[in-house]
Write a structure and sequence with these properties.
The protein is mostly helical. Helix content is 62%, strand content 0%. Helix 4 (65-87) packs parallel to helix 7 (133-154).
Length: 247
């Protein structure tokens, strides 16, 4: 998919402001269609109609719809990496105990997954349907990058944790939270209710995370504060309507 910072194969980025404007309109239209209608709704014809651009303009920038989707995915995961690096940077959590960090993390990840649900589902389904190993690998890299940041953050609090293989445990616990939310939010079709709200889900995931690391939740931080000031301060988005600003 090219080196870091390069567009995927089959994508030609604009250099002039006029070309950039039409390019941005196509990106905005594609994201809006995916959010509202799912992957199948983001056809080239609908993108052209919604963006007010012609076929020649589209194919001047993208070899195909698949090239457009690859571009959207590459931008999405690059922004995701950057966003979580900021949110989980140790400097922002130096005064917080492990219990608070983990509770805040699971709440943030629930909000993040909800806000990006339509795009995440589309990108994951597209990668699996295509059987494109590069796209599938990029999803795995994204998941493990979040785990990397959690490892870096929680290892600065190793005195509070008792697991003998701490770094491995942090990674596995983080990936388990990611997988649970992916199963529940991204791939849970329909509107069936199971009686577990997002706040309760985040709290239960935090409890399991802490116990696995050997740091039982002793009630020192209940999670009742909701999404903490640290996350809000770095601009973690709480609604799907803000997602299109990623691009």
């Amino acid at each position: 998919m090219g080196s870091a910072g390069d567009p995927p194969e089959g994508v030609r980025l604009p250099r002039q402001s006029r070309s950039r404007a039409s390019f941005d309109r196509m990106i905005e239209a594609a994201l809006e269609l995916i959010t509202e209608e799912g992957l199948e709704g983001a056809t080239v014809q609908k993108i052209l109609k919604s963006s007010g651009t012609g076929a020649g303009t589209f194919y001047a920038r993208f070899d195909s719809r698949d090239a457009l989707l690859a571009y959207l995915m590459s931008r999405f995961w690059a922004h995701t990496d950057h966003e979580w690096q900021i949110v989980l940077h140790p400097d922002g959590w130096s005064s917080a105990p492990v219990v608070e960090i983990v509770y805040q993390f699971t709440q943030m990840l629930v909000l993040w997954t909800r806000a990006r649900g339509a795009l995440l589902r589309a990108f994951l389904m597209h990668a699996m349907a295509q059987g494109n190993q590069d796209l599938l690998d990029r999803i795995s890299v994204g998941d493990n990058t979040i785990a990397d940041h959690m490892c870096t953050l929680l290892l600065t609090h190793s005195a509070e944790l008792k697991h003998q293989e701490l770094e491995q445990a942090i990674r596995l616990a983080t990936l388990q939270v990611v997988a649970t939310l992916r199963s529940r939010i991204i791939f849970a079709w329909g509107s069936r209710e199971d009686g577990i709200g997002d706040h309760a889900l985040a709290a239960e995931l935090a409890t399991a995370f802490l116990r696995y690391l050997g740091c039982p939740d002793n009630g020192s931080w209940t999670g009742s504060e909701g999404l903490g000031a640290r996350a809000r301060a770095v601009g973690l988005r709480e609604s799907a309507s803000e997602e299109r600003t990623l691009f």
